[in-house]
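> call design_seq(struct)
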């Protein structure tokens, strides 16, 4: 009689069994499955907490941020509270932003608009997460590269 081999365990079973052994996976954040969950995670809806997180990230990247009326980095970056989160406006003077329209559809973003020449982007961040952090980091990197090339 030939014994039939069973299939290997799936990733879900492996993670369930070894949940305590893989704490580094928490760094990737929770999976957001519905738009309602996405909006619910922005606790107060006013954008105050989002502005604080964005300010800390910008400062950690070495940006000199004015905080008089929202957040401002020269003529390049503007962030202001809106009814549902934080509205960003980013304008590049010398070259196109490193963005494509699909970047504006990431979880946590609403009302994204990218100009045809890709020099201006407008969007509202309604929830902070990895996509928002990466988005802002890319913009900071672009700004630093743009500054280096213009000197």
């Amino acid at each position: 009689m030939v014994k039939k081999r069973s299939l290997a365990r799936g990733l879900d079973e492996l993670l369930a069994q070894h949940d305590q052994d893989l704490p580094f996976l928490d760094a990737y954040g929770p999976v957001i499955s519905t738009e309602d969950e996405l909006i619910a995670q922005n606790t107060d809806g006013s954008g105050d907490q989002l502005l604080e997180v964005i300010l800390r990230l910008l400062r950690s990247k070495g940006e000199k941020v004015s905080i008089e009326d929202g957040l401002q980095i020269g003529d390049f970056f503007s962030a202001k509270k809106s009814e549902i989160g934080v509205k960003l406006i980013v304008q590049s003077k010398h070259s196109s932003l490193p963005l494509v329209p699909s970047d504006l559809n990431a979880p946590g973003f609403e009302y994204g608009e990218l100009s045809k020449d890709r020099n201006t982007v407008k969007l509202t961040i309604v929830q902070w997460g990895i996509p928002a952090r990466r988005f802002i980091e890319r913009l900071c990197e672009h700004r630093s590269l743009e500054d280096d090339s213009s000197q």
